[in-house]
Amino acid sequence: MAVAASGYLRIGATEVDAWMGFGTGVLGLMEAQRDDASGARYLRLDDHPFRLMIEPAEADGLIATGLEFPDEDAFRACCSALTAAGHDIAPGSEAEAKRRAVTAFATTQDPSGNVLELYWGRELDYTPLVSPQGIANFVTTYQQTGDLGFGHLVLPALEFDATTDFYTEIIGMGITDILYPPGMDGAKIHFMHANNPRQHSLALFNGPHPLGVVHIMVEVETMDEVGRAMDRAKAAGSHFLATLGRHINDNMCSVYLLAPGGIAVEFGCEGMLIDPETHVATVSTEGDLWGHEYNFPGMND
After folding, report:
1. What is the DSSP letter of 279?
2. Residues in domain VOC (predicted)?
3. How far apart are CA 88 and CA 126, in angstroms?
């Protein structure tokens, strides 16, 4: 029943063109040529038809997280477990599934109200990936183990314990690391892995966030690609939420940028890989080995 990966994100944007310009011009993602009656536009990182769906919206923020299951049996077992535990779950229509390029999906919410789209059977796009910024590959697979997902995301979870139980006991994730961020009294983050080697595919923060997501992460293969993205971000006038730094728990060397509308995007390399079958959860009281000096908008005004 274990979830295989964090597969895609649906992001609401008041300025879709600006988001797409950031996605292609700064992050180096490829725009997928897909028609959508609602005006959504799509960004590719690999052979999946899209990893980010950017949708016109009246407010900026995360709309839904797509979690991928390895096959129909695992998908249906999770849906049944959710129903048995008293969670509402709504099957998606055939037309809605086609829009997401999946065989079937169902929508539910975790106990903190985060919207999830559980799915199986992604239809792949075999058009070669051509990054407009010349990035050869994004880190979304690993050798013979297969899909690592688009990267990771951190969700707000005011109902922290119940939400953690939801992901570990029903969705099938495992806790990788528990972080008590320094300088943030009472703050706590649970980092959780799916059934793949990425150190975490999803994390929970025990506080609110106005955009419905603390940050999302995209990974590249080399430090040079991170550096070139930093140059592009500076040239584009993007806000640097955090300077270059390296995290302790997943070893990611990264920078944090704000996308149009305010969603934080971590762009990094060298993320840790684990064995999801044998990993033993750790506890961290420091977030970084070095760097990552934060500059929240307005803090220096």
Report:
1. -
2. 5-121, 149-270
3. 35
- Give the chain as a DSSP string: ----EEEEEEEEES-HHHHHHHHHHTS-PEEE----TT--EEEESSSSS-SEEEEE-SS-EEEEEEEE-SSHHHHHHHHHHHHHTT--EEEPPHHHHHHHTEEEEEEEE-TT--EEEEEEEEPP--SPP--TT----BS-EEGGGEE--S-EEEEE-SSHHHHHHIIIIII--EEEEEE--TT-TT--EEEEE-SSSBS-SEEEESS--TTS-SEEEEEES-HHHHHHHHHHHHHHT-EEEEEEEEESSS--EEEEEEPTTS-EEEEEE---B--TTT---EEES--EEEE--B--TTTT-
Band (pLDDT 50/70/90 cuts) for residue 301 is: very low
Backbone angles phi, psi at 171, to 5 degrees: -70, -30
* Closest CA relative to residue 97, chosen from 13, 8, 158: 8
DSSP 36: -
Cα dihedral 38, 112, 1, 177, rounded to 10, equals 120
Is the per-residue pLDDT at 33 higher than 50? yes
Length of the chain: 301
Helix/strand/coil for 115: strand
Average pLDDT over every residue of 46-63 = 97
Domain residue spans of the chain: 5-291
Rounded to two decimals, the pTM is 0.96
- The CA dihedral of 213, 215, 221, 222, to the nearest 10 degrees, is 170
On the question of pLDDT at 143 being above 90, the answer is no
